[in-house]
Design goal:
By secondary structure, this protein is mostly beta strands. It folds into two domains: 149 residues, Methylamine Dehydrogenase, Chain H; 124 residues, Methylamine Dehydrogenase, Chain H (7 Propeller), CATH 2.130.10.10. The protein has no helices and 26 strands. β20 and β21 form a beta hairpin. The two termini are 17 Å apart.
């Protein structure tokens, strides 16, 4: 979603489109050079867009764009395989990249120039790193991947502070709970073990977990942090209450994967996409987020 919530980005092997959030119509296209587009992330101030992907087994790349003028500022080289996930640090000074070559790369992007920025490289995983995110108001980084683990990493030293290893299959996505809530920051994870788990990573605590009928592929919080939405392999979209673990089906299963998910900043609706390139806008009235 764009910072103002009026538009959203769609990435695929066909390129990158900017669409309206209300009618899903194409507003413009961005001339990316990425062969595969895997992730987008806006900087905390909303003025920069990171676009991640690359060419499998050849090159991982992050493109940095100025927003909303949509001009390419430059590109960051991120190893010899694709980048699956990109995330900004809370202060907007660093950018993390979870990569297929098992590495997590951290780029210092606070300056104006993009060229020749060399990343700090962390290797917390024994298989592909699928996602990384930053704990709010912290220099700690979370990464997760195919090796079934979530690592809490100090990116400055590369030290793994702790390992969260309760998942029994690949960890596909991480999402930090937004808003003000009691206690340490909460992070949701979803795995190919059919679970969505709720953590307080700073203290290494698994709070609780929900088991789904099918494997989730992507998750996103509602803006208030009242629910996590989980997109699933059978096409259903499920809302989960982190306090009670109650589940509400927002979209019924139709046999087609949902694997892309974004929520409007107002909480009025979510936008979901599938591998066929189909998009749908899903009202969230059923959960009153």
């Amino acid at each position: 979603m764009s910072p103002d919530g009026t538009q959203f980005l769609v990435g695929s092997q066909a390129g990158v489109e900017v669409r309206s959030a209300d009618e899903l119509k194409v507003v413009r296209t961005l001339p990316t050079k990425l062969v595969n587009v895997h992730d987008f992330a806006f900087s905390p101030d909303g003025k920069r867009l990171a676009m991640a992907g690359g060419t499998p087994a050849e090159q991982g790349t992050i493109e940095l764009w100025d927003w909303p003028v949509c001009t390419l500022r430059g590109s960051l080289a991120a190893g010899g395989d694709v980048v699956y996930s990109v995330a900004w640090s809370p202060d907007g000074e660093q950018l993390s990249a979870a990569c297929a070559d098992r590495k997590v790369r951290v780029f210092a992007v606070g300056g104006e120039k993009v060229e020749n920025i060399q990343p700090r490289i962390v290797e917390p995983h024994s298989a592909a790193a699928l996602v990384a995110c930053w704990l709010p108001a912290s220099d700690l980084l979370l990464s997760a991947g195919v090796d079934q683990s979530i690592r809490v990493v100090d990116p400055a030293t590369g030290q793994v502070r702790r390992t969260l290893d309760n998942h029994t299959a690949a960890v596909r996505d991480l999402a930090v709970r937004p808003g003000e809530h009691p206690g340490p920051a909460m992070v949701a994870s979803c795995g190919a073990d059919r679970t969505v788990r709720f953590w307080q990573p700073a203290i290494g605590r698994l709070v609780r977990f929900a088991r789904l009928p099918v494997r989730p592929t992507a998750i996103a919080w509602t803006p208030s942090g009242s629910h996590v939405l989980a997109a699933c392999e059978d096409g259903r979209l499920v809302a989960i209450d982190p306090a009670t673990l109650d589940q509400t089906d927002l979209v019924a299963a139709d046999g087609n994967w949902l694997h892309a998910l974004a929520v409007l900043p107002t909480g009025a609706a979510a936008i979901a996409g599938n591998p066929e390139g189909r998009l749908r806008r899903v009202p969230l009235d059923a959960i009153k987020p």
